[in-house]
Write a structure and sequence with these properties.
The chain is α/β, with parallel strands linked by helices. It folds into two domains: 110 residues, Aspartate Aminotransferase, domain 1, CATH 3.90.1150; 220 residues, Type I PLP-dependent aspartate aminotransferase-like (Major domain) (Aspartate Aminotransferase, domain 2, 3-Layer(aba) Sandwich), CATH 3.40.640.10. The chain is 40% helix and 17% strand. It contains 14 helices and 13 strands. Strands 2-8-7-6-5-3-4 form a seven-stranded mixed β-sheet, with helices on both faces. The protein has a four-stranded antiparallel β-sheet with strand order 9-10-13-12, with helices on one face. The protein has a two-stranded parallel sheet with strand order 1-11. The longest helix is centred in the C-terminal third of the chain and has 19 residues. Bound molecules: pyridoxal-5'-phosphate. The site of pyridoxal-5'-phosphate (PLP) has 12 residues, from helix 3.
Length: 361
């Protein structure tokens, strides 16, 4: 395959740039378990400042930040409310149940968006038969709803209601900076409605490893205990934190380019016969499209795209996901956008790709 590779499977596939690697190589390090790694300290301070919180803590993964947030807010036998398609519920092995004895109450949103009217009445009364409702978790942008940006006023309304009723709030902000770029609303403005916020450095920001949880000094002190319990205390962690720090300082403002490239991909889908965007509009860096079964399974569509060295992910029998990120430039996005109608036409004409195994996600 001589054509340059365009990898749209996820925004987690980015590799550290030469400049990021130089920052990593030069990182000052210490032992973060005893609180003496200056690079991770700087990363945590900057993250807290950007999110408008008192403190932040670096962790190996977004799943760990989310699960520790649930654990900070809930005790065994407590319940949290979340949207049915959210990452915390669907893609983290129900760790809240396995590790913390907490139960989730899922509510079906519209494209990942919950409305306050759906939540009123869900807080359980104080009664020994019942679990205790403690927490509301929201996700912004919403991964499974193709990077949907939550409506700001709805978020403010839900969190205001939660706090008025004695509940805590957590934001899974793995892609919060994409929401910032798309909405023009600052990360601190989004975050002010939540007791804790998690952000990922290894998605669109392009760092090799890590996420952070931000909140009050007390919440983060508690999170630090849980991080140790979960085996997430790391020693000379400045080595990887330097990549995250570089990402936060250099790769936030450019996310708008990823969104423009996602629009290019969306236009490619619109130009093709037998496929359609779902949802019809693309908010940020994630594009989902459906494939008419007459063209064959989504896996065949993806395999045919791979013949052109354009890599997407078949998420279901008829659904394909493409995600833009800092290792996909405008030329790559344009080429991918041309491949989509070409593949649709090939499949419609009965030209099948070679047999292929594709991992489901
Ligand atoms: C990627 C992601 C996470 C965290 O994933 P890890 O792979 O554990 O870092 C959490 N929430 C959302 C919405 C995500 O997309």
């Amino acid at each position: 395959m001589s054509k340059p590779r365009v990898d749209l499977r996820s925004d987690t596939v980015t590799k550290p740039s030469a400049a990021m690697r130089a920052a990593i190589a030069a990182a000052e390090v210490g032992d973060d378990v005893i609180g003496t790694d200056p690079t991770v300290e700087r990363l945590q301070e900057l993250t807290a400042e950007i999110l408008g919180k008192e403190a932040a803590i670096y962790m190996p993964s977004g799943s760990m930040t989310n699960q520790i947030a649930v654990r900070v807010h809930c005790k065994q036998g407590d319940e949290f409310i979340c949207e049915a398609g959210c990452h915390i519920y669907n893609y983290e092995q129900a760790a809240f149940a396995q590790l913390s004895g907490v139960v989730a109450r899922t509510v079906e949103g519209q494209d990942g968006v919950l409305q306050l009217d759906q939540l009123r009445g869900l807080i359980r009364p104080d009664n020994e038969h019942l679990v205790r409702t403690r927490l509301v978790c929201l996700e912004n942008t919403h991964n499974r709803s193709a990077g949907k940006v939550q409506p700001y006023d709805t978020v403010a309304e839900i969190c205001g209601w939660a706090h008025d009723n004695g509940l805590r709030t957590h934001l899974d902000g793995a892609r919060l900076f994409n929401a910032v770029a798309a909405s023009g609303i600052s990360a601190a403005d989004w975050s002010q409605h939540f007791d804790t916020v998690s952000v990922c450095f290894s998605k669109g920001l392009g760092a090799p490893v890590g996420s952070a949880l931000a909140g009050s000094r007390d919440a983060i002190k508690e999170a630090r205990r849980h991080r140790k319990l979960f085996g997430g205390g790391m020693r000379q962690v400045g080595i990887i934190a330097a990549g995250a720090l570089y990402a936060l300082q250099n790769n936030v403002d450019r996310l708008a380019e990823d969104h423009a490239n996602a629009q290019t991909l969306a236009d490619g889908v619109r130009a093709a016969e037998g496929v359609w965007l779902h949802p019809a509009e693309v908010d940020t860096n994630i594009v989902f499209f459906q494939v008419d079964p007459k063209l064959g399974p989504a896996a065949d569509f993806v395999a045919a795209m791979e013949q052109e060295n354009v890599h997407a992910l078949a998420l279901g029998p008829d659904v394909i996901r493409m995600v833009t990120h800092l290792d996909v430039d405008a030329a790559g996005a344009r080429r991918a956008a041309e491949v989509i109608p070409k593949v649709a036409a090939q499949l419609a004409a009965g030209i099948r790709p070679p047999a292929h195994n594709i991992a489901a996600y």
